[in-house]
Structures are given as C-alpha cells and as structure tokens.
C-alpha cells in the first residue's frame, strides 16, 4: 500500500512522496505561434459556425474554404511536433489544453464529471441563456440528480423508448405531410422544409400533439441560443428565458398523452425524481436545442444514402422487412445517422474542465484547465482509420468499446448523451418514410464515396424526390 504518512503515523505528507505538480512537472506547451495557429484554425472556425446555433453563412464559408480539413491537419501537425499531450496552449491568463491521444479521449470522458467536469466555464456561460439548471453545466449532487432525471425520461439505455409506439404516429404523419408538400412543389426537398417537418415531430413527441405548430417556443429558443453563441459577451435576457421555462412548465402541466412532458408529469407525481419541478423544466430546453443537430445529421444521412445506392437498397430491404413492426429498429438507418455524425460531428468540440490537478504520462494538468476534445481530429484521422473519409455504417454494428479507436459523436462515459437512442429511433423512422416511399437524388452536391468532404453544409443540401 502506498501512503504518505510519516513513520510515527502523523498524517502529514512527506515532501519526498509528494507528487510533482503542474509547475514542477508541466505538460508540453505549444509555442505562442503554434497556439495562435491552433486557435485560428481549430477554435475560430468552430466558434464562427456557431456552437449553440449554427450561422448558415459561416457554415457555408467554412465549407467553401475547406477550413474543417485544415483544422484536422493543424492538430496532426501539432501531434507530430509535441507528442501525445495533452498539449497546453500558451495563453496568458487562461488554462486550455488540446487532447491529441486516443487513449486520453477515453480516459477524460470516463473520468467525468470528476476530475473532468462537464460544467466547463464557457459552456456554462453559453447555456445559462436558456437553461442555467441543466445537468450538463451542474456540479456534484445537483448534477447527479439532474442527470438521473434525464436518463429516466429519455430511457437512455433502451434502443426503443418505452413510449416509442406512441411516438410513431407523429413520425409517420409528419413525414407524409412533408412528402405531399414536396410532391406538390415539383419534388425539390430543401433543408428548410425538412427542418420544419422534423420539428413538428419533435414538438409532438416532447410537448404533445397540440404543440405541432408551435413555432413561438422554437423562435424563443433560437433567439436565446443565438445569445448563447456569444456566451458571456451578451447579458442574459431573463424575461425571454423565464418565458421559455413557463411555456414548458405549462406543457408539463397539460401532460398530453403520448408526450414526454406527460411522462415527466407522471414521474413527478409518483415521486420518481429527486429533482424539483423547476429543475425538471430546465432539462427540456436542452432537448429542444439538441433535436436541431439531430435534424442536420439525419438530413446529411439522406445525402449519404443518395450517393451510396447499394446502402440505400440495403436500407430499403430492412424497411420492408420491418414494415409490420410496431416500432421498426432499422439498424442500417441508425448506423447511417451515426456515420453522418462521425463524418460531420454536430458537437465537434467536447469540453471539460479539471476540478483538480490531473497527472498524465507526460506531465500534470493544472486545476481549472479547459480540456478540448476536437472530435473530427479522431473521427477523420486517415492515418489510423482506413474508413476515415468513407461511409462505413458497419463500424456501428456493435457498441464501441474503450479498447477501440474513439468515435464519440454522442460523447462517452458518464456524460454520454442520454438522448442518443431517442434520436436514433426518431431519425431512422423519419428517414425510412422518405427513402422507403421515394427515389432520392442529390441535387446540390456531388459526394465522392471514397473521399467524403470534411464538412457538408446541411443548409445548402438539396434533393430531388420522385415516385418509386
Ligand atoms: C444528433 C443529435 C445529438 C447529438 C450529436 C448529441 C450529442 C451530445 C453530446 C456530444 C453530449 C455531451 C456534451 C458535453 O459533454 O458537453 C450530449 C449531452 C446531452 N444530450 Fe445529446 N445529442 C443529441 C441530441 C440530443 C437529444 C435529442 C436529447 C434529448 C432529447 C439530448 C440530451 C442530452 C442531454 C440531457 C445531455 C447532457 C448530459 C449530461 O449532462 O451528462 N441530446 N449530447
């Protein structure tokens, strides 16, 4: 047993046994020039695109200028020069580090929220604009009970949510409405139409059928998310934030059958939660927010299918096989969404913050360090993955393990996205309605199967749908 007691049993730490700290044994630090390059080529494009709500014009610019590929290349150069890291950035007054080693990705995500807190400072400032009590930016016991509430409501370990059968009419009906609208308009599907239809599904599933056309809450959320993009640089609009919470509170009180709001109300009534009503209500803006990237990912998934006819055929085969199921599982369409997220991560930067000093092989990370995991660096690493730039749904035919290369579109460990199965359930079934009933051709882009682009702008993606 190792201990630091003296021979006489005094609980004082021996100076000899004391572990070197972040001052005596620092991690490698990037030079000022390299720090500037990493900030300019990795951080800046990510922030410009909009971390909390995407800015379509900036997404287009990043796509056109090829900045996403440059970001990955920049970190590859850094890893060659500095080794495994984590690499401290040479910033005055701010402790930041970039993760460069696949093993460290696993470790950091598994050792969340202690010592790697999910409640990182910038994230806290961004999310406080609409959900200051959400699990993701909470600490300790508060985080634990808020996380548990999310896990229960989202049935987070179940590929098929316990209420899935009740969600299916919304998915099928809204897809039908969308298809009719596209047919009537000559067959062109664009993101705006797709997004509106998708959010009609989301509103019905989360809040209830009568919220189908409620764009007001969505708009309120969008305005607050736009403020969130600026984090602490914008003051919180508490009135708008209260309005969001009060509308969600009303939906929970209404408890429309078949909605997760009703499930919440039921669980509250039966004393299943340690959280208060206020806390419960504040978990839901995160869901409404996060269903937005789910729309992007599934829409890009359609582009993958349209440009890979063999996969599309296989997906249609599964759709037909499960046509009679109450809730089809659709593994290939789920894997398509996961691939879309691997190729074009909607949470490209996973952030953590150290609550104490942490020892790594090559040095000690100070307390209060922001830890940056840039997912595309790992997801699109052609030096280590032969499928880096290809559509490879088979990599998702099993749960990814710690022994494997980190593919973390939904994060991992105790901070793993509790909504992932619900996302995959709803997106796969929504996509099935489209590709099961229509031919689908990509109009706006040409995707080369062996060399998929580093970014695919969902806002400019267009398809032509025709009768099968
Ligand atoms: C494509 C869609 C989505 C993606 C890619 C995604 C990804 C992620 C990621 C990467 C995290 C970890 C973030 C971090 O550590 O900072 C996360 C957390 C979370 N996600 Fe998702 N998510 C999606 C959709 C959803 C949906 C639709 C819901 C709810 C219905 C949801 C609920 C949550 C919650 C509650 C957390 C916080 C978990 C915690 O505090 O530990 N997500 N998600």
UniProtKB/TrEMBL annotation:
Q: Which InterPro entries match?
A: Cyt_P450, Cyt_P450_E_grp-IV, Cyt_P450_sf, Cytochrome_P450_monoxygenase
| Region entry Disordered, spans | 1-28
Task: Recite the UniProt keywords alphabetically.
Answer: Heme, Iron, Metal-binding
Coiled-coil annotated spans: none
Q: Which cofactor does it need?
A: heme
Looking at the keywords, is ATP-binding present? no
Composition bias of kind Basic and acidic residues appears in 1-10
Question: What are the binding positions for heme in this chain?
Answer: 417
Q: Where are the transmembrane segments?
A: none
Taxonomic superkingdom: Bacteria
**Per UniProt, what is one GO molecular function of this protein?**
iron ion binding
Family label:
Belongs to the cytochrome P450 family.
Q: Which PANTHER family match?
A: CYTOCHROME P450 (PTHR24305), CYTOCHROME P450 12A4, MITOCHONDRIAL-RELATED (PTHR24305:SF166)
Please report the name of this protein according to its UniProt entry.
Cytochrome P450
Which species does the entry assign this protein to?
Nesterenkonia natronophila
């Amino acid at each position: 047993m190792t201990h630091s007691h003296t021979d006489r049993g005094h609980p004082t730490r021996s100076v000899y046994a004391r572990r070197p700290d972040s001052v005596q044994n620092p991690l490698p630090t990037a030079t000022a020039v390299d720090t500037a390059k990493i900030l300019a080529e990795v951080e800046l494009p990510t922030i410009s695109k909009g971390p909390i709500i995407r800015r379509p014009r900036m997404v287009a610019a990043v796509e056109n200028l090829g900045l996403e590929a440059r970001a990955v290349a920049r970190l590859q150069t850094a890893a060659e020069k500095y080794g495994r890291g984590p690499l401290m950035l040479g910033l005055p007054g701010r402790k930041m580090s970039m993760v460069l080693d696949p093993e460290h990705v696993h470790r950091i995500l598994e050792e969340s929220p202690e010592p790697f807190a999910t409640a990182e400072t910038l994230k806290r400032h961004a999310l406080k604009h609409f959900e200051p009590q959400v699990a993701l930016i909470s600490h300790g016991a508060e985080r634990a009970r808020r996380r548990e509430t999310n896990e229960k409501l989202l049935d987070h370990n179940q590929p098929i949510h316990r209420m899935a059968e009740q969600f299916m009419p919304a998915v099928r009906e809204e897809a039908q409405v969308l298809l009719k609208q596209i047919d009537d308009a000559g067959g062109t599907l664009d993101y705006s139409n797709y997004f509106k239809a998708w959010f009609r599904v989301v509103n019905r599933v989360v809040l209830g059928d009568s919220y189908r056309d409620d764009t007001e809450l969505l708009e309120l959320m969008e305005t607050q998310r736009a403020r969130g993009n600026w984090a602490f640089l914008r003051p919180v609009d508490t009135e708008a934030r209260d309005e969001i919470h009060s509308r969600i509170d009303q939906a929970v009180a209404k408890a429309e059958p078949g909605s997760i709001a009703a499930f919440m109300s039921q669980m509250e009534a039966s004393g299943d939660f340690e959280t208060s009503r206020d806390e419960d209500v504040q978990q839901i803006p995160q869901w409404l927010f996060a269903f937005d990237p789910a729309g992007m990912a599934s829409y890009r998934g359609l582009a993958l299918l349209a440009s890979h006819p063999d996969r599309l055929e296989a997906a249609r085969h599964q759709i037909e096989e499960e046509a009679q199921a109450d809730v089809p599982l659709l593994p290939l369409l789920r894997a398509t969404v996961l691939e879309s997220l691997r190729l074009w991560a909607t949470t490209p930067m996973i952030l953590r913050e150290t609550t104490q000093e942490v020892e790594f092989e090559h040095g000690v990370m100070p307390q209060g360090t922001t830890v940056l995991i840039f997912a595309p660096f790992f997801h699109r690493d052609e030096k280590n993955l032969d499928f880096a730039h290809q559509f490879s749904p088979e990599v998702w035919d099993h749960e990814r393990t710690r022994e494997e290369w980190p593919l973390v579109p939904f994060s991992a460990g105790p901070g793993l996205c509790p909504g992932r199965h619900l996302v995959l359930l709803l997106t796969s079934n929504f996509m099935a309605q489209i590709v099961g009933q229509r031919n689908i051709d990509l109009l706006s882009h040409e995707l080369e199967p062996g060399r998929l682009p580093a970014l695919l702008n969902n806002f400019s993606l267009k398809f032509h749908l025709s009768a099968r």
